[in-house]
């Protein structure tokens, strides 16, 4: 029952209701211009948040921070991409895999589709000899909402009864220089 409440709260936080656009590609720290007809997102707008600390978001996107969430919307497009950063708390007795699967299912249902959540591991670069390894989960979804084809991605990082959730949604017809999950991972890697 408690998991249904948590998932219901998360559903209200998802940006799936908005059109989206954006991506970015970086090589050796220098952004490359996107090919013609491909949307380029530069992950270069620093922001200090109360809840999430220092994060870097897409350049020139409109950012709004509430007590529970950070949202960024591309402002120079009639098909704006929407990014959201949330913290979902859950009882520690619940298996993290079940929690991330439920979060992904909420978005999949909103889009009328299904997706498979993938577990990934990555050793973080912390400037020390031994750095921590993180476990995170990703899913990429494409479906219809209000008659519009959308593609969305989630990256979920669970830790001790909470999940940091990064999400992005875009109109499916928009072309990107980098996949949506890669955009989310770039944002996550820049978090401090």
Set down the secondary structure blueprint.
Layout: H1 2-13, E1 26-27, E2 30-31, E3 43-49, E4 53-58, E5 61-65, E6 69-74, E7 82-89, H2 96-111, E8 118-123, E9 133-145, E10 148-159, E11 162-171, H3 180-189
Antiparallel strand pairs: 1-2, 3-4, 5-6, 6-7, 7-11, 8-9, 9-10, 10-11
Helix pairs in contact: 1-2
Short description:
With 192 residues, this protein is of the alpha+beta class. The protein is 20% helix and 40% strand.
Write up this protein.
It is a single chain. The chain is an alpha+beta fold. Helix content is 20%, strand content 40%. It has helices spanning 2-13, 96-111, 180-189, and strands at 26-27, 30-31, 43-49, 53-58, 61-65, 69-74, 82-89, 118-123, 133-145, 148-159, 162-171. The strands form three sheets. A seven-stranded antiparallel beta sheet has the order 5-6-7-11-10-9-8, sandwiched between helices. Strand 10 and strand 11 form a beta hairpin. Helix 1 crosses helix 2 (96-111).
* CA distance, first residue to last residue: 34 Å
| Overall pLDDT level | 80
Helix amount: 10-25%
Structural class: alpha+beta
Strand content: 35-45%
List keywords for this structure.
192 residues; seven-stranded antiparallel sheet; alpha+beta; disordered N terminus
């Amino acid at each position: 029952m408690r998991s249904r409440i948590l998932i219901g709260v998360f559903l209200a936080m998802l940006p799936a209701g908005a059109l989206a656009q954006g991506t970015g590609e970086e090589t050796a720290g220098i952004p490359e211009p996107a090919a013609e007809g491909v949307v380029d997102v530069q992950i270069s707008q620093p922001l200090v948040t109360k809840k999430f600390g220092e994060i870097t978001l897409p350049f020139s996107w409109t950012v709004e921070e509430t007590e529970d969430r950070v949202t960024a919307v591309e402002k120079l497009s009639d098909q704006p991409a929407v990014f959201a950063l949330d913290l979902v708390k859950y009882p520690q007795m619940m298996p993290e895999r079940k929690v991330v699967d439920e979060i992904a299912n909420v978005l999949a249902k909103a889009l009328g589709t299904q997706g498979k959540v993938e577990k990934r591991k990555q050793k973080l670069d912390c400037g020390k000899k031994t750095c921590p390894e993180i476990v995170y989960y990703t899913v990429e979804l494409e479906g219809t909402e209000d008659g519009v084809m959308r593609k969305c991605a989630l990256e979920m990082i669970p830790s001790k009864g909470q999940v940091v959730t990064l999400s992005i949604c875009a109109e499916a017809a928009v072309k990107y220089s980098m996949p949506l999950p890669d955009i989310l991972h770039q944002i996550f890697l820049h978090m401090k």
